[in-house]
Amino acid sequence: MIAYLPLQSTLPQRYQEFLRQLAQAGFKGEIADDLGLRTVLATDNSIYQRLPQAAVFPRDEADVQCLARLAARPEYSTVVLTPRGGGTGTNGQSLTDGIVVDLSRHLNNILEINVEQRWVRVQSGVVKDQLNAALKPHGLFFAPELSTSNRATIGGMISTDASGQGSCTYGKTRDHVLDLRTILLDGTPLDSGAIDAAALQTASARNDRIGAIYRCAAQIAEHEAERIQAIFPKLNRCLTGYDLAHLRDGQGQFNLNSVLCGSEGSLGFIVEARLNVLPIPRHSILVNVRYAGFMDALRDANALMAHKPLSIETVDSKVLLLAMQDIVWHGVAEYFPADEQAPTLGINLIEFSGDDQAELEQRVHDFIQHLETDTSVVRLGHTLAIGAQAVGRVYGMRKRAVGLLGNVEGEARPQPFVEDTAVPPQHLAEYIAEFRALLDSHGLQYGMFGHVDAGVLHVRPILDMKDPAQAALIRPLSNAVAALAQKHGGLLWGEHGKGLRSQYVPEYFGELYPALQALKAAFDPGNQLNPGKIATPSSLPDARLTAVDEVTLRGELDRTIDERVWQHYESAVHCNGNGACYNFDPNDAMCPSWKATRNRIHSPKGRASLIREWLRRQGEQGVNVLDGAAKVRPLVARLWNTLRGRGDFSHEVYDAMAGCLACKSCAGQCPVKVNVPDFRARFLELYHSRYLRPLKDYLIGSLEFSIPHLAHFPRAYNAVMGAAPVRWLLEHGAGMVDSPLLSAVDFQAACNRWQVKLATPRALAALSDTERQRSVVLVQDAFTRYFETPLLAEWLETLSRLGYQVWLAPFMANGKPLQVQGFLGAFAKAARRNAQSLLQLQACGVPLVGLDPAMTLVYRQEYAKTLGGDNAPNVALPQEWLAGVLPKADADATGETWQFLPHCTEKTNAPNSIEAWRQVFEKFGARLEVLPSGCCGMSGTYGHEARNLQTSQVIYGQSWQPLVARHGQQGRLLADGYSCRSQVKRQDGRSLQHPLQVVLANLRARAAVQ
Fold it and tell me: Could you say which of 290, 643, 754, 987 is the most buried, measured as most Cβ atoms within 10 Å of its Cβ?
């Protein structure tokens, strides 16, 4: 049983009035103050949680101007606005207790690409990888690199002056910004870029806010030049936030962009940028050097830098060991060979690139000679990743380091709060030695990775933030690290911005801090834009910078959840906000509902945030959710609750969970392994202990039990389901659309033809060893058995033509539909019954093989979790079994090429199985090209639910539809997911083959020749 969680509005009167006025003023975007969305926007990739009052989503620049003009009115002088992009900051930069201004949902268009002059013009919500995907056909790229490039927006990069790998060669974001368009607090657009003295004089003479800004900045550049020279560090990363040192460039031009880049939304709303772009190097080679100790890797960096590589990245053993357990490792393991005698405890990734391949190879040859002859550091060996694809795979592992560090065992997790310090590279090893001594003195473990060529190392102390004693270390450790970095000629904020670490700004800048305050006052005299960050106007005595431990920590709220509860929901509680699920790429499986809706509640991070808050509030009501499943309220009580319970926060959580496709891509791809379908199912079970279930849940949940009986009358069933009145009733009464029709193929006839036998323990036990080796048990699933019977019959034929005796396991409900809909008690019962039957067959020594990937993987995932690993049957995917039994190709193999769209659950949760399909085709002398693809949008019954129909169509249109249009006409496009093939048939009217049908065609052709 769960408690009713009333949505008591705490929105202050001034914010309520502001939002009303905003809607009346012609604001076209969305205005949201629901608790669910605010909860999701309360966190980023930091240790903080700060609940905003509301969120607004401007549709265009005019909306931003409308918002800014209204906020500048005197009656709204206390309304706080904070711009937000991808929301992946590690220091709470975009967290606010005011209004979030999300510039990513709509302002995400690439406006212009000028190939000849090598620049682009983009809106601030464009994602970095999205931009580079558009530039790639022109041979160009936007150079600043960062680990979150698949979800970080250009506006966010500009606002934090982001940089990462390759910064010693390519510089920071600021170095590539040509022009910015910023909306000031009064709605005035500011177009900024490099200007000469005459233009500066003209701008300074203006009698408006723009004039005041230019006058202030020019006076600082002129009168504070000596202090700027003395205080600003001489580092590759220089300094993020109000970079006064670059107000004037080497040619004497004046550029406000140096202070706007890195300003973290505290000066205005950056809505558009014109950026410099560069030619993509034609060739690249990555040298992967392994060390017996992490400090050896750091000490080696200076010598390696003498060869002038593009970049040097370093990773410690903790990150490396986590990567080895991640989905990413199967693509890079060859570059990091294991040696039990000399384990790798640190690596350096040294990249060389260029347009002249011969010259590049000579540079790498000279570098390798250095590695082989230099004895100043002990190296365990090295490998080469040659070419953009190979280099990209290794960097993909390195990019996941941020998220991977959040996936260590136990409740203590690496925490970002002192993790982007920068010191001169020549001091890095000494600095890190003292840093490690500091952490060791507190008995803390930590993970490290970073950019040793730039002197930046990401160090994350491992703390359990639910423990008040450990959380109390945030301030003393921050104080000590800030002082330590300054001692070694560096600074606390080397890469990821200041955010809620701004309290150290006055001490660091000393007599120059008033200049920063003056600049803030010129842009934002009322301190309304992301206040408490970087600087505050000196004219407002009550305005001050926020301290590092002043804002609520996520751990403070998590610790109020009962320990048994958060352990049961650990994948949600452990979400660290790294935002990997915000991946923009439509041809990446995670997360389809986020990509289609652009609503962050429909993402793994969003759903994890909502579950955490829901659990916390249930605990406040004294409810133990672990006992809830056994306490379902009577039907009348649930009906009454459904009719009257409109204001329950649980409904907002339900809407987010109901929008999940349960594709499990998050469980496979999230670095922290946030498993939404798992805690979604548990939530649905608890939610429906209080509220009525929709009829569709019962129809879906009972499918595997009812369809075998209905299949005795396929024509009558199909006639009824195809009738217009029935379709109308199903859609409007049960919420189901496009229900699949039964196959009319006589499956028993196919079994008879291929002499298929019913599998029983007694029959299998009676087999001789020779017979057992040539036998296989086929495990049926409801979808291919009853709706796609011809394919199942062809699978029987395939197995038989390979010379195997096919044994058919008795059909039993797999239970996946029950699990997806949250009928967990019924699922456990079905799983136990099915598993007991299959385990008896498995004990006879004959392999069990399934057909549909989504249904087959349930045995090794949900069954293993529910029943325990030893009680779950081992059912192989078709390609896993075939790869081990097929003979090699004949000499006269055709060498045909086929394109393949794998099921997203299979691709993300059993990645090696995709390689198994390649091996199967190779054994026939054919080539299988696996196309990068996202989700088809069907995902079992998701696409058949009326509430999801539009989203399902959007998802299909984002990835699969273009791929089907491009490759489907040749008849060589394959898909192995039942739901995927159903979606293609429904949306495009095409019938895709299963890879097994190609295998069978080859077997038939061989038989015909013989």
Answer: 290
